[in-house]
Specification:
heterodimer, A: alpha/beta, FAD/NAD(P)-binding domain, six-stranded mixed beta sheet, about 25% strand, elongated, B: Ubiquitin-like (UB roll), about 10% helix, about 20% strand
Chain lengths: ~350, ~100
């Protein structure tokens, strides 16, 4: 990828959760533009992914607000600053450019350049849960897959799909017509997936087009990364092996620090230590705000992240606009700020 | 009020629990390894525990929401519960749970 394709901006924000979103606001008041990268396909981070309907009671001024409502309100609040979002992408690597700026490349090939990176990645990237089965790592990418990129790779294969949610059922229905055989393994004879999908799956089982195994997966057998059997155990403790070429486990998402761990920043138990004046990491120009940072007295609260975003923005301004004077103003009185917010 | 927790290495911990706290919160407060990613919203299945047989009958049965969320846990058995859905009370003084295997 040529450098010419790089998008230049003031601040690259890694993570579009509540803190990343509010950082857009604080940066925007200082005329700093932001691009956000998030592995999810929409804004909100944990608020949207883990608890969209859960009421939150400790946001100042909002006695009760759900995760999704808070996300929606933040999006409304930052709308005047027109941030650019890069969803469904993992911030993969960074490099320092000769002029002191940072270049960040995502796993989708997006290239962003800015004097400041603000990591607001919460608990890390949402990635598929890896079943705690001994030796599963050796099969990943070869015969164990957590997502389907090309359906064709499963044509005429013996497949085992594990899980009971929509992903498991959707892929069961999509892959059953092209697979040689398909077994859905789930720990109970009930499914949280959409009833329509469940009915379709049961109809396929009824006419012998696929198998349903009510059991837990206990082990994997194979060689050189190629599965030959998935071992399962049912409630009555009977164990058996299912012959297969591939296993697709769908157990939802979990959070992992991900590539940020390799960016050369000092880490403390999967968190990023920062100072409490600027919330800057051990590397100049890279800041960390919200749940992902660590400092004495840190509280993992959304409101703490908001405060951290405000102070980070001040430091980001000094770095991005070294020749300009930072003039701190209040939104209540500054006509300048009110114009930016579009209320004047 | 006690909450007895067997960790994944088989070590038994006797924790002081508080009325109204969720078992998950007590376990997390003591620094035992439990992810509890969603913080008690019954939406991540990373606070999965096995409840000792003798205590099963004393717990409120799981709601549909919890049963469905357990679909995202691993090695689920009849005594599987999400510890964020267990509220500590006098009736559960001495409750014994075992931490379930966790996604690596």
């Amino acid at each position: 990828m040529s450098v010419a394709e790089a998008v230049k901006t003031d601040v690259i924000i890694v993570g579009a959760g509540p803190v990343g979103l509010f950082a857009v606001f604080e940066l925007g008041l200082l005329d700093l533009k932001a691009h956000l990268v998030d592995i999810l396909d929409r804004p909100g981070g944990q608020c949207a992914e883990l608890y969209p309907e859960k009421p939150i009671y400790d946001i100042p001024g909002l006695p009760v607000v759900t995760g999704q409502e808070l996300t929606d309100r933040l999006l409304e609040q930052i709308k005047p600053f027109a941030p650019s979002f890069h969803f469904s992408q993992m911030a993969e690597r960074i490099e320092k450019l000769p002029d002191g700026k940072w270049r960040l490349v995502t796993d989708a090939g997006t290239v962003l350049e800015a004097p400041v990176i603000a990591i607001a990645a919460g608990g890390g990237s949402f990635v598929p849960k890896r079943p705690p089965i001994a030796g599963i790592e050796a099969y990943e990418g070869k015969s164990v897959f957590y997502s389907v990129r090309k359906m064709e790779q499963f044509r005429d294969k013996d497949l085992v799909i594990a899980g009971g949610g929509d992903s498991a059922l959707d892929w069961t229905l999509n892959l059953q017509p092209i697979a040689r055989s398909l077994t859905l393994v789930h720990h109970r004879d009930g499914f949280r997936a959409a009833p329509d999908s469940v009915n379709k799956m049961r109809a396929l089982v009824e006419r012998g087009a696929m198998a349903l195994e009510i059991a837990n997966i206990t082990g994997l057998k194979g060689e050189g990364g190629q599965l030959s059997h998935v071992s399962v155990q049912s409630k009555d403790k009977s164990a058996r092996d299912i012959a297969c070429n591939a296993l697709l486990p769908f157990f939802g998402l979990t959070m992992k620090l991900g590539p940020v761990a390799d960016w050369g920043l000092q880490l403390h138990e999967n968190l990023i230590p920062v100072d409490t004046e600027k919330f800057e990491t051990s590397t100049a120009g890279i800041f960390a705000i919200g749940d992902i940072n660590h400092y004495p007295g840190k509280l993992k609260l959304i409101l703490s992240g908001f405060h951290e975003a405000a102070l980070m923005a001040q430091a980001a301004f000094r770095r991005a606009r070294p020749d300009e004077k930072l003039r701190f103003q209040y939104t209540t009185s500054s006509t300048n700020l009110q114009k930016k917010l579009g209320v004047l | 009020m006690k909450l007895i927790v067997t960790d994944r290495e088989g070590k038994v911990h006797e924790l002081e629990a508080l009325e109204g706290w969720r078992a998950m919160e007590v376990i997390r407060d003591y620094g035992l390894p439990i992810k509890a990613e969603c913080g008690g919203a019954c939406s991540c299945a990373t606070c999965h525990v096995y409840v000792a047989e003798e205590w099963l009958g004393k717990l409120f049965p799981p709601r549909e929401e919890e049963i469905e969320m357990l679909d995202q846990a691993f090695h689920v058995h009849d005594n599987s519960r999400l510890s964020c859905q267990i509220l500590m009370s006098d009736a559960l003084d001495g409750l014994h749970v075992t931490l379930a295997p966790e996604s690596a």
